[in-house]
User: Fold this.
Amino acid sequence: MKYLMIFFLLMTTLHQQAQPIRLAVAGISHGHNSWILGRKNDAQVELVGIYETNADLVQKMIKRFNLDPKLFYTDLNKMLDERKPDGVSSFGTTLQHLSVVEACAPKRIPVMVEKPLATTVADAEKMIALAKKHQTMVLTNFETSWYPTTDKSFALTRDTAFMGKIRKVVVHDGHEGPREIGVSNEFFDWLTDPVQNGGGALMDFGCYGANLMTLLMNGELPTSVTAVTSQFKPHIYPKVEDEATIVLTYPTAQCIIQASWNWPFARKDMEVYGENGYIITKDNNNMRAKGKKGMEIEYRLTPQETQTHTSPFLYFADVIKGKIKVPANGTYSMENNLIVVKILEAARTSAKTGKTIYLQ
Assistant:
C-alpha cells in the first residue's frame, strides 16, 4: 500500500509537470504584449484569460492576434476566479503592478511583471510583503535575463583567477526613443508619464543596469547613487527625461549606467572590468573577454552552451512547476528587484536635487 501511494504521487507529479501552465495576462497596454498575445498555445504555456479595461485596445488586440473575445475580462478578480490560472503575467503600466499582486497573492497565484518591479520603493515593498505572506512569488522580467552573454558574463566574474574583484561596470541601454521607434499610442501615453512609469528613460532603461549590477555584486546594496538627467527632446517628451546617467558606488567597485532615448540605434550591452581581466558584451550572443596574461577570447554563444532560458514564459512555467528555483539575487528575483527600485528612486531624487543619495 505504501509503495502504491508513492507510485501514485509520483505519477501525479509527472502528469502535472507534463501539462502546460495556465497563464493569464493582467493588462495589455505594454508594448511587449505581443510576446504572449502572439504566442500560440503549446505543450508548456496555455493562455486562459486576459484582463483589460480599455475596450478599444481589446478590440484592436482581438483583431491583430485573432483572439477569442471570451478570453477577455474587465474584472481582474472575476478572471482569476473563473479561469484559475497557474500564473499571471502583468503587461499593464508599471504603476498597476501593485494592484495585480494585491489581487493574485492572496490566491497564491505567482506573478511575473515587466521591468521594473514598481515605480516606488513603497510599492515594491508592499508587493514583496504580500508574496511572502501568501507564500507565492513575484518575478520581474528583463530582456537581458534571456541573454546567453549575461549568463556567461556572470559565470566569468565568479572565476576570481580570471577576473579578480570587479572594479568598474559600464552599462549602455536604450534606443532612439519610444516615438522614434513607433510604439503604440497606448504604450507611449503611460511610458512617458512620470506617475504611471515613474519617469522616462531613467526608469525605462536605467533598471537594466541596476538589475545586472545587483546580480554581479551578489545582491550588495550600493553605498551611494548619483544621477544626472536631461531633456533633449522636450517637444516629444515634455513630462519626463529622455537621457540619464547614473553612477553607483560600492566599497570595492563603481558602476556607470547610461540609459537613453537618444542612442542612434538600439543597444543593450555592458563592460565589466576586474583586477585581472575584462568582459565586453556586444549583444545577446556575442562578447569578448580577456583574463590575466591571457589572449582576448571572442565568444559566439548559444543558449544551449549557457543553459539560458530565452523565453520568460518558459522560465516562468519551469518555476511554477518546481523544475527550477529562482536564485536569491538572480535577475528575476524579488530580492534583486527591490534593490533595483531603491536605486531608481535614489537616482530620481539625486537628479532632482543635484545631490548624491546615500543608501548605506
Q: What stands out?
A: Residues 334-353 form the longest helix (20 residues).
